[in-house]
Amino acid sequence: MANHTIKQLMQLSADIYAIPNDQLYDLDDLFYYHQKWLLRYIDSRKKEHEEKMMKDLLASVAWFSAVVNRFHIDLEKILPKRYPYKCPFCLELPCSCEKFVVKKSKKTGRPTSRMPRNLSEWQKLIEKIYPSENLLFKNLEILSHQDRLHQSFRLFRRQSGKRHIKDIENAVADYFVELLKIFNFLKKDLGVEYFRIFKNGCYVCGKKPCECFYVE
Ligand SMILES: [Zn+2]
Ligand SMILES: [Zn+2]
Asked: Given this model, what pLDDT does residue 109 score?
């Protein structure tokens, strides 16, 4: 079992994409491509193209990492604060949130010292909080989470007066957990899959840094 850390995943994404992303794309582009690849993933999933589905999903993870990296958000550091062995909305393990209720998070308290050290362990913890057998998998649900993530960045940028970086940090942590739920549901290890596809560079052009240029 591989033990890639969140930091390593973010670093790999930065090594391949940070330079071209900074040169070519503004924040709205990053969100646009993030959503585009999510839509492709949903489409391939519907058509049951397994390998294509995984690649599309991983490409969307790469665009998500681009957003996280651009804002210099330390996902590895904020995740245990948001998810310290419990759901930040109901504070239970496993989660007992009622469906279809607008959720408001609560203070989760201090993370314990035995927090996950790598992506595989994080996936296991998320499986404990949100057992995939209890999840009714809705293909389109991830899109509403993507929308919420995007919205939090728009609010952050457009707010006048004091900005709260914590709002977007929480949105990033919540979105990442949704991703882990999907990988749990698919019974795939995010770290293993991500490094399989990206370890030698961009999986489209094969270069590090990437030399692709998207104009759509
Ligand atoms: Zn909950
Ligand atoms: Zn490329």
From this structure: 73
Domain count, the chain: 1
Q: How far is the CA of 50 from the centre of ligand 1 (A)?
A: 30
In a domain? residue 212: no
Answer yes or no: is 208 within a domain: no
pLDDT for res 107: 79
Nearest to 80 by CA among 198, 180, 170, 186: 170
Using the mean position of ligand 1's atoms as its centre, give its distance from the Cα of residue 90 in Å: 4
Distance 199 CA to ligand 1 centre (A): 35
Long-range (24+ apart) CB contacts under 8 A made by 41-45 are: 42/139, 42/140, 42/142, 42/143, 45/139
Domain that holds residue 159: 6-198
Query: Is the whole-model pTM more than 0.70?
Result: yes
Nearest to 54 by CA among 190, 208, 146, 157: 190
pLDDT of the residue at 100: 57
Pairwise pLDDT comparison (140 vs 71), residue with the higher score:
71
The rounded Å distance from CA 142 to ligand 1 centre is 17
